[in-house]
Write a structure and sequence with these properties.
The complex is a heterodimer of chains A (63) and B (301). In chain A, 11% of the residues lie in helices and 38% in strands. With 63 residues, chain A is mainly β. A five-stranded mixed β-sheet of chain A has the order 2-1-5-3-4, with no helix packed on it. The longest helix of chain A has 7 residues. Chain A is globular, with a radius of gyration of 11 Å. Chain B has 301 residues and is α/β, with parallel strands linked by helices. The mean pLDDT of chain B is 94. The structure holds zinc ion (2 copies).
Chain lengths: 63, 301
């Protein structure tokens, strides 16, 4: 499983997919978030390995 | 995925620009786009003093950072609106940012200037919070910039903000707003020039820029933005952008080509407010002074 944390929310998805595929599965438009690991940006083409944990930062702000 | 510029490992793909970029070249692109917008719309001359409206969010902090990086004399202005919880956090983020870099940040308190916080004003004036907020912020930013002798007032509006505003204006065919939606509005009398140097940069690029540059911004929306129309408009544009990349940038660039066909309904004659001396289109006191009157009335009652 891959763990994606977005503010207080935690999503889990199966490993083996690209980040873009995983986000679409979760109903998140891929370009509305940035995925971060160890303080670095992870591209949408990245395939997270089993047990990998990523943070999702929303890029769309209100107002 | 390789960087379109240097061939090293890319971290972000910008479909609307046809680019894949490594951290270094994402930073270079953002700064180049800002410099380009400043040149194209003649936003700033090198010696001019610019006041950046700072909210503690990613766009305004990044804008301030970039303007200084590009060599401009930029100072920050934070307006403390007194929104419970949120204002303290956004003020702290702005102050920490400025302190760490040795930048000059000015703080203006709405409660001190008006006699009420935004929360208090909303209760008294029975208006919509976001529209009241816009009114008082625009007034205080301009007044501070004018009195401080700044030649320009810069805001962090990005491509997503401008495309959403444009869609909102088009849906209402509001010719007055369309005529005034422009990346650089010249100054006039006591109205200071207003500039939006991030107008061609997406929110995604700005968030990436902050992460790469280590700019710690407040990652939290204003509580009043919940359910705001601007968020719905951004949502619609993001759905379109997902299916048709470059929708937002072509929408905005196309508009800028035809914008001069829109005219304000009638030329506005500005006069000085008898209360504060700042320009107003109204006969008698300006909107801010009228709100202030209502606040002191309400407080006395
Ligand atoms: Zn590169
Ligand atoms: Zn006034």
């Amino acid at each position: 499983m891959v763990i994606l944390k977005r503010k207080e929310q935690v999503y889990t998805v199966e490993a083996g997919k690209t980040l873009e595929q995983a986000l679409r599965e979760l109903g998140i438009l891929p370009e509305t978030v940035l995925a971060i690991k160890d303080g670095r940006i992870v591209p949408l083409s990245h395939r997270p390995a089993d047990g990998e944990e990523l943070e999702l930062v929303d890029v769309i702000s209100g107002g | 995925m390789k960087c379109s510029v240097c061939g090293r490992e890319a971290v972000i793909k910008l479909r609307h620009a046809g680019l894949r970029l490594c951290p270094e070249h994402l930073v270079a692109r953002v700064e180049k786009e800002v410099a380009g917008a400043i040149r194209r719309f003649r936003m700033l001359a090198p010696q001019e003093r610019v006041l950046v409206a700072v909210s503690g969010g990613k766009d305004s902090l990044a804008l301030w950072h970039i303007l200084v990086e590009l060599g401009y004399r930029a100072e920050g202005l934070y307006i403390d609106l007194g929104i419970a919880g949120y204002s303290a956090r956004s003020r702290e983020a702005s102050q920490v940012f400025a302190r760490e870099r040795g930048f000059t940040l000015h703080v203006v308190s709405l409660e001190k200037e008006l006699g009420a916080t935004l929360d208090g004003l909303t209760r008294l004036a029975r208006g919509k919070t976001c529209s009241l907020c816009g009114t008082v912020k625009r007034y205080l930013m301009n007044k501070f910039a004018w009195e401080g002798g700044y030649q320009a007032l810069a805001t962090g509006h990005n491509l997503d903000d401008e495309a959403a505003t444009l869609l909102g204006n088009v849906l209402r065919w509001d010719e007055g707003y369309l005529a005034r939606q422009y990346p650089a509005l010249p100054g006039e009398g006591k109205l200071v020039k207003k500039i939006k140097p991030l107008v061609f940069l997406s929110e995604r690029e700005m968030a990436a820029y902050c992460l790469i540059k280590g700019i710690r911004y407040l990652y939290e929306d204003c509580p009043h933005a919940q359910g705001a129309r601007s968020i719905a408009l951004k949502g619609v544009l993001n759905e379109l952008e997902d299916r048709y990349p470059a929708t937002k940038i072509s929408f905005l660039r196309g508009f800028l080509k035809v914008r001069d066909r829109f005219r304000p309904p009638e030329p506005v004659v500005l006069q000085d407010c008898p209360g504060c001396g700042m320009p107003t289109a109204a006969d008698g006191p300006c909107r801010f002074c009228r709100l202030k009157g209502r606040v002191s009335h309400g407080a006395a009652a």
